[in-house]
Amino acid sequence: MEYTLWSRPVVGDSMNSQKIALLTDTGTNTPADFLAKHDIRVVPLRITYLDGSTYESGVDITSAQLVARLGEEIPKTSLPSPQRIRDLLEQARADGYERAVFVTISSGLSATNQTVRMVAAQMGDFPVIVIDTLSIGIAAGLVVIAAAEMIDADVPFRSLQRKLDDLSRSTWVYFSTKTLEYLRKGGRISEPVYRLGSMLNIKPVITCNESGHYVVARKARGWERSLSTEVRLAQERAQAFSKVRLAICCSDSCDYFAELEGRLREAMGEAGVEIESVLHSGVSPDLLVHTGPDVVGIGIQGIA
């Protein structure tokens, strides 16, 4: 999954009427074509190996390159530097934007959100709204997409914080991996969960709780049952709404897009819930560090 860090819009042409820049981080997995279309600037999380080499996720290391090296070493991830964040905001201002919305992955999983808030507070006469999605991957990307649509629809800047915070609380992620090794080594799941899962072939479906931390949503025995469990969990969430947006993310080695979309459409039909859209997304290198090469997830966002 590769990103263009920013493009320079033509003022008065592609720029929205309120001159609001939209930024995010690579952990939201927002599709590259949508980023380019809406001039969304992306700050990359960093990936570091034992030899000291550091890469920017999606910029100078791709998902395929990251996976190719996992057999040799599982690297570490770290948040973007404050200067990198400031550079993106300053560039947006230089390009003619007068304020910004910055949407990040969960503060419960990364200090990116806190760092963005620190930098935003130093931007003087360039107001920045910072949104904590309390989620990760394409579910967080659904919030980015909604933010772009609200900005394009001229939702007042002062209203965006409340609306996007509310929407973040109506957006959920569910994902499974074929092996729990990477989640354990990254400290994302406990040793007992790892051992139980490995011994009994239990594939826990992971989600983010209300504070944005990873928790086990439900346990399933075997890979196929874990995928079915993801669909059921999405269906259960959807029943509180008349209309939802859905997203499916798959790593390169797990192409379940068509299969899961079919299952989700059937499940939503059974629940009497309208689907506004179904988005497909890859998985960024920084997320693959913690999930491993085989990960499949579902994002669901209630909108009506």
Summarize the amount of helix as a percent range: 25-40%
- The percent range for strand residues is 15-25%
Query: What is the total number of structural domains?
Result: 2
At the first level of CATH, the class of the largest domain is Alpha Beta
- State the separation between the terminal residues, measured CA to CA: 31 Å
Largest sheet: 4 strands, parallel
Oligomer: single chain
Q: Look up the CATH topology of the largest domain.
A: Rossmann fold
Overview of the molecule:
By secondary structure, the protein is of the alpha/beta class. 38% of the residues lie in helices and 23% in strands. The chain has 2 domains: 149 residues, 3-Layer(aba) Sandwich (Rossmann fold), CATH 3.40.50; 132 residues, Hypothetical Protein Tm841, Chain: A,domain 3 (2-Layer Sandwich), CATH 3.30.1180.10. It has 11 helices and 13 strands. A hairpin with a 5-residue loop joins strand 3 and strand 4. The N terminus is likely disordered.
